[in-house]
């Protein structure tokens, strides 16, 4: 039953106006309530207080019980020790996240699917040529965001670019679809980062550091994200999934678990800097604090860029599945002058499902392969 039948209006309303109004209302509510920032709310980040001379500006944050430097400039200070090296732990909030670079990309990566996909999936389908193309908006933005993280990062990372091109070639050859291969190849770098987060989040290095310990729900989500995505890829490759509807539900469950585990992955990304800082601090008699200081600063500075890489692949899968769903409603059948788009709609529907399948497959293969490398000692967290 249409909404106009339940609530009769004195003036005619275009059928697509309800979708536009719902999307704008969701976007405005999510933006002003800072809903995307809630994913990382209260996640712990770390800062290293810079050592400044007595003639320069004094540090705002100091270790507890420490006194400001004395006015005697000629007296030599005490030698550096392990006890003087400290980190400060802060809880993330929307104001803290908004001050980080690439926050707009992270904010829009969550805002666009949240605003566009629910109206396209839940509201009655209007007879409008633009309605079946609504999921393409978050899909295109997530694709460009991942491509920018891989190829346009500053400074450039040749190893990441080579790995993504190799994944592009392999996925294109195996899937026989340039569209599916290009979309799936962008999941290689986020999967590699997730594997590092999984390795630290499940306490595989056996460091005994309390700061690296994650809660039981976080470890459960990390394990479920890897196990369910790997099982889904194996079932699809072996042909055990009967029907596209069951496959779509399975892929949606995988994407949901990956999205839930992204919070724990971001926390482990920040804890990785603490792990490296602690290693360099106690590796030699003379602690190497410069590398650890730079590591902590860079991980804190590029927090939103890493968070975008964690949330983009599952949101990309959900956008592709939404595109498959709305294209399956036969929007163009019976529409005068648009009957020729029926075949194009069917082709886009199949391409979207194929791309979602390959995004999950590439993500699972790279994640499991990276974890095997860490387990065998071929890779290290430095």
Salient structural properties:
single chain, 382 residues, mainly alpha, two-stranded antiparallel sheet, 13 helices, 2 strands, 62% helix
Give the ordered list of helices and strands.
Answer: HHEEHHHHHHHHHHH
**Pairing-aware structural class of the strands and helices?**
mainly alpha
What is the radius of gyration computed over CA atoms, rounded to a whole number of angstroms?
25 Å
Based on Cα principal axes, name the global outline: globular
- The share of residues in helices is 55-70%
User: What profile does the largest beta sheet have?
Assistant: 2 strands, antiparallel
- Number of separate helices: 13
Strand content: under 5%
How far is it from the N-terminal to the C-terminal residue, by CA?
59 Å
Question: Mean pLDDT, nearest integer?
Answer: 77
General description of the model:
There is one protein chain. By secondary structure, this protein is mainly alpha-helical. It has a domain at 129-376. The protein contains 13 helices and 2 strands. The protein has a two-stranded antiparallel sheet. The model is unreliable at 51-66 and 71-84 (pLDDT under 50).
Task: Describe, in short, the structure shown.
It is a multi-pass membrane protein. With 382 residues, this protein is an all-alpha fold. It is built from 13 helices and two strands; from the N terminus they run H-H-E-E-H-H-H-H-H-H-H-H-H-H-H.
Strand and helix layout:
Layout: H1 3-6, H2 17-32, E1 44-47, E2 88-91, H3 94-98, H4 103-122, H5 136-151, H6 158-175, H7 178-185, H8 188-201, H9 216-238, H10 244-282, H11 289-301, H12 303-327, H13 341-376
Antiparallel strand pairs: 1-2
Helix pairs in contact: 2-4, 4-5, 4-12, 5-12, 6-7, 7-13, 8-10, 8-12, 8-13, 9-10, 9-13, 10-11, 10-12, 10-13, 12-13
Transmembrane segments: 20-43, 129-147, 159-180, 303-326, 351-374
Region (Disordered): 57-82
Membrane topology: Multi-pass membrane protein
């Amino acid at each position: 039953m249409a909404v106009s039948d339940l609530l009769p209006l004195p003036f005619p309303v275009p059928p697509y106006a309800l979708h536009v109004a719902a999307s704008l209302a969701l976007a405005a509510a999510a933006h002003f309530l800072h809903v995307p920032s809630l994913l990382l709310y209260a996640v712990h980040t770390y800062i290293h207080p810079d050592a400044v001379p007595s003639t320069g500006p004094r540090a705002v944050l100091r270790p507890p019980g420490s006194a400001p430097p004395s006015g005697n400039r000629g007296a030599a200070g005490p030698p550096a020790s392990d006890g003087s090296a400290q980190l400060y732990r802060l809880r993330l909030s929307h104001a803290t996240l908004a001050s980080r670079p690439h926050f707009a990309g992270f904010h829009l990566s969550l805002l666009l699917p949240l605003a566009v996909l629910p109206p396209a999936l839940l509201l009655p389908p209007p007879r409008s040529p633009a309605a079946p193309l609504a999921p393409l908006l978050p899909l295109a933005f997530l694709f460009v965001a991942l491509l920018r993280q891989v190829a346009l990062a500053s400074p450039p990372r040749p190893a990441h670019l080579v790995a993504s091109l190799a994944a592009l070639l392999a996925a294109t050859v195996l899937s026989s679809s340039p569209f599916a291969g290009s979309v799936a190849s962008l999941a290689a770098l986020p999967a590699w980062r997730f594997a590092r987060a999984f390795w630290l989040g499940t306490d595989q290095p056996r460091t005994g550091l309390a700061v690296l310990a994650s809660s039981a729900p976080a470890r459960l989500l990390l394990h479920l994200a890897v196990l369910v995505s790997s099982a889904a890829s194996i079932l699809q490759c072996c042909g055990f999934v009967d029907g596209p509807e069951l496959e779509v539900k399975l892929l949606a469950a995988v994407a949901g678990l990956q999205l839930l585990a992204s919070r724990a992955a971001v926390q482990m990304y920040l804890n990785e800097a603490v792990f490296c800082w602690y290693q360099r601090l106690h590796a030699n008699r003379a602690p190497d604090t410069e590398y650890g200081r730079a590591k902590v600063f860079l991980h804190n500075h590029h927090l939103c860029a890493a968070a975008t890489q964690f949330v983009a692949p599952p949101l990309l899968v959900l956008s592709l599945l939404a595109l498959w769903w709305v294209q399956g409603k036969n929007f163009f059948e019976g529409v005068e002058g648009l009957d020729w788009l029926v075949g194009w709609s069917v082709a886009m529907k199949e391409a979207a499902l194929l791309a979602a399948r390959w995004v999950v497959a590439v993500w699972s293969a790279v994640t499991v392969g990276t974890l095997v490398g860490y387990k065998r000692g071929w890779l290290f967290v430095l």
